[in-house]
Design a protein that fits this description.
677 residues, alpha+beta, eight-stranded mixed β-sheet, five-stranded antiparallel β-sheet, 28 strands, globular
Amino acid sequence: MKKRLTALTLAFALGLGTTALAAGAEKTISVTSMKLTVNGQEVTPTKSDGTAAEIFAYDGATYAPIRYMAELLGVNVEWDKNEPDTAKLAGVPNFTAPSSPSGGLQDGKYVTTARGHENLVQVATTFQDGAIKEVEVLTHDETVGIGNYAVDVIPGRIVEAQSVNVDVVSGCTFTSMAITSAVRAAIQEAGGDVKEFSAKTAKEVTPSQVEETVDLVVVGAGTAGLIAANRALEKGLNVLVFEKMDIPGGAMAMTYSGLMAAGSDMQIAWDGEKAATAEEYIAFSKSRVTPENAVRGTDLPYWSEIYNASGEVINWLQSIGVGFATMGIRHGSTPFLAPGPYQGGCGYAMEYMAQRIPKLGGRVIYATPVTELLQAKDGTVTGVVAQGEDGKTWTVHAKTTLLATGGFGNNKEMMNEYYPQYKDEMINCPKGSTGEGIQMGIKAGAKVECMGRTLGSFLSAYQSRYELAFMHYTTPGLIVNVNGDSIGNITKNNHPMLAAALADPVNERTFYYVIDEAARQRSKKCIVVGNGLTFGVSYEAVFETGEAVHYDSLEAAAEALDLPNLVQTIENNNAHSRKNEADEFGRSNLPLIDDRDGIWMLRVIPTCYLTTGGLACDTDGRILREDESVIPGLYGAGDVLGSLEEKDGNPYGMGFDSALMFGYVVGDAIAANEFGK
């Protein structure tokens, strides 16, 4: 008889640490129940508490309780509280531990896997003459523009250091750790001792001082900083960019890549005279304004700038080589960065923009955080001080300084101060979103605004925090809470609904996504359901890694997960679905959930993904004081400003547009305002 188990359950049940998956990963496997006979007599193994224990076979091996089998054969089993993860057999007659043929690391190529940020990472490690000769990442699904940097760098670091204890690539920690974990597994598989390949190579850091003068210094190589730097360089400015991480990008490579634009050549070619205009977009957005939330009037001062520049921005991106794919129409004619959302489009564009800066004569200095803004006695910002991991201290004098450092979702102290309603919640944002730009702005006299408002949330897998923002389109299902009750309409006002569900104590922060076999197969094939914007989006990773768990029926899932109302909830959903009618939450596109082939249950959690409060600025990006006066020499762009929609009195929704297009606006404004170009 075949049964399903998870690899973690298997490993802990046996007291063994031999699973090839990284810590925390799960994998659903099929096992075969076995009987045990001794000298022709059937026996029933027992656990230490005397209850029956199951024997089963998997992958060519049969598994049985060590204590029972050992004592059956007259061997003592000992347990040492100081070594709780070791099973000790004592009194085994004539026993000598076997050794490998050469007594150590065996030559050869070993293929192992470990859990990355998105999915499993497969690595081939080659050993020769007792050394690591080569490390090669064979397959991965890591984010383009983030994980691929670790794939390029970490294998070489391991080979050079002959150690798995190498520095991660900051900004892509998960992928870095996955590669080193896979190499550890290869060392063990080859009969080696991981400790012999765990030496920490000391970095040689030679302190030095660098002093320079430039036209513009940009703090942060994320979306807004890269775009503004490119525009300023095109205008003839001398530009220096500092990035504290090892890689560029901020949130750009993580973003959903839709750009809401009006008047581009692409849109006019598509719709001609019917093409949406900036005025139409502005009118639509004005209809959604909450007046008391608009910090500088209800006429959309910020998004009017963005809408009016949007067509020009699209044309500019195309002219310099950033392509688009037409992947559905929204609010008129909306182009999308090629090759598409979540398939690397924004990551490729980000890498392209970063590589273009030195082509234009600028520089990007990585692994070098800016620690201080320089200010004259009258408050004018005159440059920055930066401290590199290589020991260089930079003092840069600049006529203009642009803060493009992102938000502060990874700064718990700031989150607790400005968003106490989300205290201790994990924010799914770039590692570098730690708020230094806002802190430096405040120290320079800047005002902060729009803090404490409701943050948007998307769905994430509970265990890995793998982003599932569009799963309700690609893999139709139902979200239930700790009692098995539906929590709301996941296809309308998705982000605020999820945020409210997270904050509601009734749900106890416990949620499951219920998926039948048809929906699971649809996810595997990346079929679009109801929304062309999700082309190419796949959530296969949660099935491959075992986070989504299969049960034989809804009743079995309800019992195993203690969800008393689950069966009734799904029956109610299906009754509405069969009648093509909306449920009590107004959701009309209800999936018919059928458990004849079993049911998949995925533990999920609503996850906030950025902060929407930030520094005050005018419509050119100049940073403002409490009295609304301008701090001379200081500009901002991107999430360091918070949400421009929030400033206009609209709820957050289009952060990528805001960072990219306002970065363009600010780059041009700096050239015009400060240099007359």
